[in-house]
Amino acid sequence: MSATVDGDTSRSVPNRVRRLLRGPRPETVPALVGTACTVVGLIDIAAGIFPRFRHSHMHTIAEVLPGATGPFAAALSLSAGMLLLLLAHGIKRHKRRAWRAAVVLLPAGAVAQFVYRHSVVGVLLSLALLVLLLRHRSEFVALPDPRSRWRALANFVLMGAGSLVLGLVLVSTHPDRIVGSPGLTDRLEHVIYGLCGFEGPLRYSAGVSGTVGYCLGALGLLTAVTTVYLAFRPEHPAARLTLDDERRLRDLLALHGGRDSLGHFALRRDKGVVFSPSGKAAVCYRVVSGVMLASGDPIGDVEAWPGAIERFMDEAKAHSWTPAVMGCSETGGEVWTRETGLDCLELGDEAVVDVADFALTGRAMRNVRQMVNRIERGGCRTRVRRARDLTDDELRQVRRAAADWRGTDTERGFSMALGRIGDPADGDAVIATAHQDGDGPEPSPYGDLKAVIHFVPWGTDGMSLELMRRDRSADPGMNELLIVAALRAAPALGIDRISLNFAMFRSALARGEKIGPGPVLRMWRGLLVFLSRWFQIESLYKFNAKFRPRWEPRFVVFPHTRDLPRIGFAAMRAEGFVHLSPPRPLARRRTDRGRLPRTHPRRRPDAHEPPCRVAPVRRAGRTRERTSPRVGP
Fold first, then answer.
1. How far apart are CA 216 and CA 49, in angstroms?
2. H or E stretch covering 122
3. Cα–Cα distance, 278 to 287 (Å, whole number)
4. Which of 67, 68, 90, 303 is most buried by a 10 A CB count?
């Protein structure tokens, strides 16, 4: 123990005791209480289900008291436990509404524990958590997340399945009180009847029937009440660009759009935006799985970036979202880390081709040159035009072809995808098309159109590749042909630089191909090659390397290393690799997509669209088609 110093008796108290009396740090309370609520919820559920969870003489007396106190308390304990499990995640995320519900449920769970099971530990734990919640209520101020009424359907399915499983456990924990020997079908029927509030076929002795019936009725009522609440509560739709927001962003891009090749992708209309106090900078974002996901650098004047970043972080804190930035440049990463204290990690490299330095001559371009010459000799012709120069019929044909050649049921892309073609506001975009007269027995619904590439503006002297699609029955190499055609036509359009694809982990792949890589690098490259079977990492890098680009590094910004899995999952959802959307049984299926002639029997579905890259790989005298999608950082 510490001695008294100058009459200060506080120093006589050991430091450990003082820390214990002071309690946990306020910033750690939400995570601590959220985890503890999970434990308390499980204890409450166990207390409501298992008849001998807590042994005591008063338990036997409570079951036969008038008024069926035991069955009611069991149902209350079970309901409180289920709700606490549902609220635990919201408490960890500082949600105000989860805090309010927990403040009500914890005393209810404590009462149920005492009345029905006389569990002193359960009561004390519930009350301790209640004290922490009340003492640190200022930590729970986060606003609700964007939501829709589909949450009600998801809640009904998940809660219904959970109630069914718990009900089967409940009716099976009294084997010595069941009359007869009912099978699984009878037990399941009894649970379904009980969840709906009716008496099932099973019969119990010694008053157990009331406990089981009340608990099953409580589970069914809980499922119904939470579903109705989610269905009729006010919606909080996800942020979308308004017309005024889009106008302000276009004004910023007109002044500063040449700095970042991803700037124009901020005009996706499914993103939200926060502006700096001066209005000279902005950050666009989308909220996915509780992650506030921005892409690329902030839009606007670099000097005003800190103000926009501060607004972004304030918004993330207000909703308890995890802030993250995908695909920012080196300058952007430096500003983000300096202003926010976040961490930064290199994610890959962007391929940029300088038009003045591009030529098809030389041994390095032999593969591309031969492919382009072969297709041109076959009668294929190309056209490269601004989007405003296409007629309405041509735009409709391009949109239809791009949708039908997509190869997946949903549009993919977030960081490097605009999500639209030929919008009147995007007249400066460039569309390159490949045309070839068909020789099949039936006319093509797309006329002579065989492939299309869509570029978005990158300032006044550049453009960035947004989408690439081709007819699967067309010759391999159409994509290379259109990129070369765009590079050839670039000077006439006033284009000096073209951004192609983003290649994830390019440096590891490139270094691993050279002599002398260490064992760690060889292992890492082997893993990337293995993952390329699904995510096309290696093939995308090799496709980009054909055009001899310069590589610009791109980075991911994140709060902590432990957040990377969650951010990666959110990014995959945003890019379209993972789908958690509710089913749409009445939606019409596309039956005309992906029909291939017999000359392409082994088509592999695209791993990521838009766009799609096709790189020919020659092996043993044969040309095999490899699909290389554009993957946003």
1. 10
2. helix 120-135
3. 24
4. 90
Tokens of 97: 């509404």
- Bridge partner residues of 351 (DSSP): 551
Question: Which ranges of 203-351 would DSSP assign to H, the alpha helix?
Answer: 208-232, 243-256, 305-319, 330-340
More confident residue, 595 or 435: 435
- ∠ CA 324-327-329, rounded to 5°: 110
**Measured distance CA(219)–CA(214) in Å, rounded:** 9
pLDDT at 276 over 90: yes
pTM listed for this prediction: 0.67
The label of the residue with tokens 């609440």 reads 229
pLDDT, position 4: 47
> Could you give the C-alpha distances from 409 to 384, 573, 585, 588, 590, in angstroms and in order?
28, 14, 14, 11, 8
Taking CA atoms, 612 is separated from 114, 189, 470, 560, 594, in Å, by 63, 51, 8, 33, 14
Q: Is the pLDDT of residue 464 over 90?
A: yes
Give the pair of three-digit tokens for residue 258. Answer: 């040449």
Which contacts of 245-249 are long-range, i.e. CB under 8 A and separated by 24 or more positions? 245/273, 246/425, 248/275, 248/279, 248/282, 249/273, 249/282, 249/284, 249/299
Q: Which of 59-73, 91-105, 202-216, 495-509 has the lowest mean pLDDT?
A: 59-73
Using DSSP bridges, classify how beta strands 497-504 and 462-470 pair: parallel, antiparallel or unpaired: parallel
Helix H segments across 173-242? Answer: 184-195, 208-232
Kindly report the CA angle at 425 between 423 and 431, in degrees rounded to 5? 50
| pLDDT value at 621 more than 50 | no
Cβ atoms < 10 Å from Cβ of 307: 23
pLDDT value, residue 335: 94
Task: Please tell me the predicted confidence (pLDDT) of residue 594.
Answer: 39
What is the predicted pLDDT for the residue at 355? 93
Q: Are 554 and 328 in contact (CB under 8 A)?
A: yes
Query: Of 391, 549, 400, 547, which is closest to residue 479 (Cα–Cα)?
Result: 547
Measured between its terminal Cα atoms, the distance across the chain in Å is: 56
